[in-house]
Specification:
This protein is α+β, with helices and mostly antiparallel strands. It has 12 helices and 12 strands. A hairpin with a 2-residue loop joins strand 1 and strand 2. One of its GO terms (cellular component) is membrane.
């Protein structure tokens, strides 16, 4: 069971033992079934708080989550603090908001739950019903980044257990948020690397080819400049993570026109696309690096001539894509090297196109969606991938 799943199970058990029995009368149901209603209510409120916490610990996310956490705990007030002070408060007893950061300081320093009673809770209001507080630290990857504080009229052992378990569950959600953020940063770094390798690898040859037409065929040179500008505008834009297959194919078309100007009739290519697949969302720049790799291995390593074929098929809930060349092929062990970034770096090999696309596909869709390379010496190379038609919920288009 995952950390967050285990924490949620512990949370449910703690709440059923502490909060919900105090509110048995809140459920207009048969006495024998009130526990089922209580379990559902607990899990429902936890689900309401989770999306905010999965955004990380900030004033905005804490403000959205804190009222749900107070519902879970059933206390007079609840506060969420960060390392630098109070982030959010829920409850009518705001006379203690100025003390919340001070109350959390010991929990932040020790990394252990703390109980506060007595004079340290005095707020100057003689009618204030708050007589105690339980503060649980919030940890992410072994670091204490904040605290959850529950204020109520009394502090019992059950309240301490409940706040501790809720704090662990909140920590689990914040850790998942950190993992999501790390994954996004990794993908963004790979995108920057991909763009960096496109520029030196492709720009020089394209401009040299265009320059060769300036005197002999100025109109052709102008058209190629427009194609080059169109390609670079797409490849170097501030793109979102996703685009459509139609846009990717337009980028590939511009790229092939420029390469055709360079290689002439020695480069032959065919593109066959099922119309139903054109609107399928795909990771930005997932297709052009595969075509570039096919040209590199199909033409440059095959005496400067060859054919590249792009096939996109509609396959029910997925789109299946293959890019193949009729070049010399390669040892399958070398193909594995191209997909393994560490091996490639260790051997000093350039180019990160295939490894980049493979990594992003597996990060976005799961380990079953990486590239499949079919090749053998003397048999050409085919690179296959498949993408679901429904884009992941955390992506944008």
């Amino acid at each position: 069971m995952s950390t967050s799943g285990w924490a949620l199970l512990c949370l449910t058990c703690a709440l059923l033992g502490f909060v919900l029995p105090r509110r048995r009368g809140d459920f207009p149901c048969h006495p024998a079934g009130w526990q089922d209603e209580a379990t559902f209510a607990t899990l429902h409120v936890a689900a309401m708080a989770a999306p905010s916490l999965r955004a990380g610990l900030s004033r905005e996310s804490a403000g959205e989550a804190v009222r749900h956490l107070r519902t879970l705990l059933g206390t007079g007030a609840v506060a969420l603090t960060g390392a630098d002070g109070l982030l959010a408060w829920d409850g009518a007893l705001e006379c203690h908001t100025g003390q919340a950061a001070e109350h959390a300081r010991t929990a932040l320093a020790s990394g252990r739950p703390q109980v506060v009673t007595g004079e340290s809770l005095t707020c100057g209001r003689p009618d204030c019903p708050i007589r105690g507080a339980v503060i649980a630290p919030l940890e992410v990857d072994g670091r204490v980044i904040g605290a959850l504080a529950a204020y109520d009229a009394e502090v019992s052992a059950a309240l301490v257990r409940t706040v501790t378990e809720v704090g662990r569950w909140v920590s689990g959600q914040l850790e998942l948020a950190e993992l999501d953020s790390s994954r996004r940063r990794a993908v963004e770094a790979e995108m920057r690397a991909l763009r960096a390798q496109i520029s030196p690898h492709f720009v020089y040859n394209s401009l040299t080819t265009i320059a060769s037409f300036v005197r002999t065929d100025p109109e052709r040179a102008r058209e190629l400049l427009v194609d080059f500008a169109d390609f670079t505008r797409y490849a170097l834009r501030r793109a979102r993570d996703f685009t459509t297959l139609a846009d990717e194919l337009h980028c590939v078309d511009r790229y092939l026109l420029l390469e055709r100007a360079r290689f002439g009739d020695r480069l032959r290519f065919t593109v066959r696309v099922a119309p139903e697949a054109l609107a399928v969302p795909v990771p930005f720049l997932c297709l052009q690096p595969l075509v570039e790799n096919a040209i590199k291995h199909g033409l440059v390593h095959n005496g400067g001539s060859g054919e590249v074929r792009v096939l996109i098929e509609d396959a029910g809930p997925e789109a299946h894509i293959s890019v193949e060349d009729d070049g010399l092929g390669m040892d399958p062990a070398h193909a594995r090297t191209l997909l393994d970034d560490e091996l490639r770096q260790g051997r000093g090999e350039g180019g990160i196109g295939l490894a980049n696309v493979d990594l992003r596909l597996r990060q976005i869709y799961g380990e079953d969606y990486g590239l499949v390379v079919e090749t053998a010496l003397g048999s050409g190379t085919r690179v296959r991938l498949r993408v679901p038609k429904a884009r992941p919920g955390n992506s944008s288009l």
